[in-house]
Design a protein that fits this description.
about 220 residues; 6 helices
Amino acid sequence: MPGLWLRWFGWVTLGEAAGFVAPAVVGAVSIEWPDPVMAAALLAAGAIEGAALGWAQAHVLADVVDDLRRGAFVLATAVGAVAAYALALIPVTFGERMARWPAPLLIGTVAVVSVALLATIGTAQWLVLRRLVQRNAGAGSAWWIPATGAAWAAGLGGFFAVAPPLWQPGQPVALVVGIGALGGLVMAAIVAALTGLAAVRLGRAVGFAAAAERAGH
């Protein structure tokens, strides 16, 4: 299904890149804000990013999965993104206290939080997809969670490879935002490319089931 992958790649790259502008702006202007205000602003920005991503993904998935509730999928993606940002804020908020923990406890906590963070969006989306996919394809869809988690791990790696080396102290806010948006675009493209493979798998499963049903009639 090369057509599905290409559509997914284009729309999801656009949606995630556009949505990530909100966190990029908040991150650039909130450096000196009180921690609670900064955290609240980042969570709100995460909701915007998640909604933009969810809308773009649902726009393509609606042609693959019958009866997809776009609003529910967008909401789930936004909630998952907020949860991811909340988990990412844990070391920022409690970093000094965590640094005093015994090494095994610290490493274990970081590992658990990291895995949970990567699974947030995929899990939230799976809660919407699971019944639809099972009804349409007669198969489970839990693989969507690790598939999207791996895509986000790669995407975040791309972001950190691009943006942090370009950020320097004293840069204008507009430049800081631009660098963040560039990193977000790289992240979006990687996530879109890899989750596109999962979307193709989903489309094939549903498509084969539909073809079998038509043949049976």
